[in-house]
Task: structure prediction
Amino acid sequence: MIPSLEGYAAALFEEAAEAPGLARLAEELGAVDRLLSSNDQLRAALTDTSVPPPARRAVLADLLQGRVREPARRLAAFAAGAVAAPELQGALNWLVHRARVAAERGVLLEAPSGYLEGRRRVGGFAQAVLEELGVAALEEVEDELFRFARTVETAPALRTLLSDRDQPVEVRKGVVDDLLAGKVQPATLRLVDFVVAGGRARDALGTLLWLVDQTAAARGWRVARVRAAAELDEVERERLGESLRRLTGSPVELQVTVEPDLLAGAVVHIGDLQVDASARGRLDELAEHMSAGTWHERVSTRGDRGKADQGNETEGAG
Result:
């Protein structure tokens, strides 16, 4: 199974905590698996390689809203966006099995074979932890991760311990807990613990620094900068926020500025994504489309067609 899904699942299994909760999670994931098996139309839509992963994730998340508990909904939707479309059914089967194993024996993780695999697994875990946090909390977690990474970097004994794969995971996690428990946000402690448990030991410091960047990126994707032609009322804000949540897979904070020059609609920026739904944007596109060169070309083409038609009529009359 792909490392990011393994990490994401580990975070949700950890949150379920008690065995009855994990057993119920396995049952609900099994129900989702059976739904896909029995519904040819839905299975075809979710395994269509031409459908972008975010769209597959959004479709399944919407479909499962209110039908299963949130952990099962989040896991199934993440799988829909994380694996190749034809592999979704297999991923759901794997999640069901993994949840049952976790209920019986706890969350089991094999040592990653390389640093990329380790980072992707940690990245999946981090996404599950961070996607429920607001912008202010993300900023605090980012700062705490950075400060701990700097501590590891400047303390050779600590760095050596965390990077020693021969030291039992529980020993290394115990040291982390002694240093951080009660002093940082719970999300920060969970992330550092998983760097030890689910990442590559020799890359512990590198993974911590990488997590700082991932948290900063997550914070950027939580803020939607909206330039609107007019003030948005509460209903409009809620609708826009929900649409953007579905698009990004996480809660979004709106920062709205009013720009009457847009005439109508709005322009939305989230990270590197821009959505222009303004009247001004449409007019600019039209102006570009009807630029002087294009317009003269069309007029010339129509004129040539007219001359050709006249010639044909003359030949016909002759």
The longest helix spans residues 292-317. The two ends are 77 Å apart (CA to CA). The mean pLDDT is 81. The beta strands are 223-228, 253-258, 266-270, 273-276.
